[in-house]
Design brief:
- The chain is mostly helical.
- The protein is built from 4 helices and no strands.
- It has helices at residues 16-51, 59-62, 65-83, 91-171.
- Helix 1 packs antiparallel against helix 4 (91-171) and helix 3 (65-83) runs antiparallel to helix 4 (91-171).
- The longest helix is centred in the C-terminal third of the chain and has 81 residues, at 91-171.
- It is rod-shaped.
Length: 172
Amino acid sequence: FRIENDLIANDAGTIAAEQQLNELTSELIATRGELAERSAAFERARQLLASGDDIQSLPEVQDSDIISALRTQLLDIERRLAEFSAGSSSRRAVALRDEQTATRAQLLSEVRRIVDILRNEVNTLQAREELLQEAVARTEAEIGDASRLTVRLRELERRAESYRLLYERYLE
């Protein structure tokens, strides 16, 4: 009966489904925490991008090597532009302004890519949370079934014990 109904307990006396439920619950809690963190970062980035505020203050943007390189390149261009007079229309100044515009566009593109990565992480974590919730629900249902079967098992064990005692008395 134990084998047929998968009621085999581990060393601690709990069935496998209970242990699996504990693991799934722990993983679900960790996923929810990570999802809350990533959702907040994505929402903050989306708000900053929409409002035109300084999105480069976000940790995800600051940690990007590409952003750092583009910032350095932009600072170098601005330094070289400052060497020319403010209203200079020489070819070199025009080329530097074009390069500055292109670098700013690359910088904005990279920031948008980082925001897209945040959105994808949030979507992935949401899907993972849903899968874990489903797994927890299935496991809880299995535990409910196992509880009902455990009652039947106890009844069979009591009956077997009474037959064993009766048989021993008969043998005596």
